[in-house]
Amino acid sequence: MTLDLPSPQRQDSYLPIPAEYEEALQKAQAQFEEHNDPAKESEWEDAGEREDVKLFKKTNPENAYDVPIVKGVTLVENATPSQVLAVIQQPGMRKKWDPRFDAATQLERYDSQTYLFYTYLKSPSYFVWARDIVGVQRNKVSDSGDRITVIQTSVAADQYVDEAGSYSKSRTRATLEVSAWDLIQQGSDTKLEYVVKIHLNGSLPTSVVSMVATETPMCVGRVRDVYYTNGHLPYDAAQDKGDKSSSNTILVYSEYEDGDGTEATSGEKRWTIWYHATGEDSLKLKFDNQRLYPSLNVAVEGDAASDVTADVDQEAGIVSVKVAEAAKGKGFSLVFTP
């Protein structure tokens, strides 16, 4: 049995991605493109519309009793793909829009947009075990930044958590064939689409399968509403143009702490990002100066703190970071609080 989750802040460089993980990502990307092929649009069954979310489904060809393949589509007004992505992928924000989500952690990072993760979901009822997933994620940003596709798929990482480790926590390992978020700029808005094919495995009541099939595609609507209400987390400003602002700074991990995501315990809205410096550099982070941080403080912490400066332009919603050559080989973090 293995359940040994490492510190997500431990890396000081990107790891080479295992060949089997790269192959799994390519396979999942191909699945998403097939499901999203306009020539095959008729294969989707129209499941109606709820709360301005268009819903679609397909019967799982491998098992008609399994969770169907589902898709949800909505429009997020006055938002860029990068801003919407900054609501989707951080566990601290996900708690606000995914009622089934429990927790997640990064196991390994391969570049600024690709990493291995472990996540587990809440049990849908007292008589049903929770599900967990070990998977790999890649964010693909277009050259102009007007489209971002997020691909997730299951892989094995038994050195960190094997199925016996899941069992020891009363969790059943689910198999995620493909989870794909597609964020496309449309004028000043972003079209948000979510396609999921998952096998929950184990024995499940029909009512639970039905609930998952109904709730999963509605996540796009909840992401939209969280963006409207809470705003978005900070992100690399250069991503809006399909680029990255840093060249000598390794992104290690980021984390958002905001209570448990409920209205009653909104918490302190603390966002932390960890880096490792490999030389002199500069980067810019864009933050939400209207909703999340109408007033922002940024602290620099870590071994390289004395060699890094962070200047806040509240009106522009930009944090400009300067990394001195003396920071080379050392780590630092930026801590955002109201």
UniProtKB/TrEMBL annotation:
Residues 39-210 form the START domain. One of its GO terms (cellular component) is cytoplasm. Pfam families: START. Residues 27-48 are annotated as: Disordered. InterPro entries: START-like_dom_sf, START_lipid-bd_dom, START_lipid_transfer. Coiled coil: none annotated. GO terms for molecular function: lipid binding. It comes from the Eukaryota. Residues 32-42 have a biased composition (Basic and acidic residues). This is START domain-containing protein. It comes from Pseudozyma antarctica (Yeast). The lineage of its organism: Eukaryota, Fungi, Dikarya, Basidiomycota, Ustilaginomycotina.
